[in-house]
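Technical annex, item 7. During the second reporting period the consortium partners agreed on a shared format for inverse folding records so that results from different sites could be compared directly. Each record opens with the tokenized structure and is followed by the designed sequence. A conforming record, contributed by the partner at site C, is shown below for reference.
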């Protein structure tokens, strides 16, 4: 049956780990490195204001634990190399930051910020900032 053949063609890409829909063969033959920013999703068009809001939220919500100038006990145990006011750190940690804020830290959950959960809008604006500006 031809239907079987079509199904095989559709599912074959999944078997080799290329998560594309049926017919989405782009013939990418470049070296199989990391798909940078993959889990950050798309940078939407005309999203400068949203990205700016996301940047600002990171600066406001992760104080004082994740600032370069915060040292010692004031970090409350936050890793020394995770600082929202250090662009290199934000770029390196972008996917981790997004994963943490999606979980959030409300009710003892082990995401960020500790003790609370950012609103969905804020999480999305931070995602846009990370996808547009931080993932290089
Ligand atoms: C009250 C202090 C505090 C605040 C506020 C805070 N964090 Fe953290 N953060 C920590 C501590 C402590 C750790 C290490 C323990 C852990 O991972 O739970 C940490 C770890 C992290 C890590 C590394 C996780 C890992 O497993 O490598 C990331 C990324 C992070 N925080 C992001 C954020 C972001 C983004 C915000 C703001 C939205 C934020 N944090 C707010 C204290 C804080």
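Designed sequence (site C submission):
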């Amino acid at each position: 049956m031809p239907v079987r053949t079509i199904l095989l063609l559709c599912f074959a890409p999944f078997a080799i780990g290329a998560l594309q829909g049926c017919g989405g063969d782009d013939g990418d033959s470049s070296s199989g490195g990391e798909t940078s920013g993959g889990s950050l999703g798309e940078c939407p068009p005309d999203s400068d204001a949203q990205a700016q809001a996301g940047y600002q939220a990171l600066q406001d919500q992760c104080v004082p634990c994740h600032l370069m100038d915060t040292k010692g006990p004031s970090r409350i145990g936050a890793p020394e190399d995770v600082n929202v006011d250090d662009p290199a750190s934000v770029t390196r940690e972008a996917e981790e930051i997004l994963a943490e804020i999606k979980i959030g830290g409300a009710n003892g959950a082990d995401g960020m910020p500790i003790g609370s959960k950012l609103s969905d809008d804020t999480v999305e604006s931070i995602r846009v900032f990370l996808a547009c500006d931080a993932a290089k």
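Residues 12-37 have pLDDT under 50 and may be disordered. DSSP finds four helices and no strands in the chain. All partners now use this format for quarterly exchanges.
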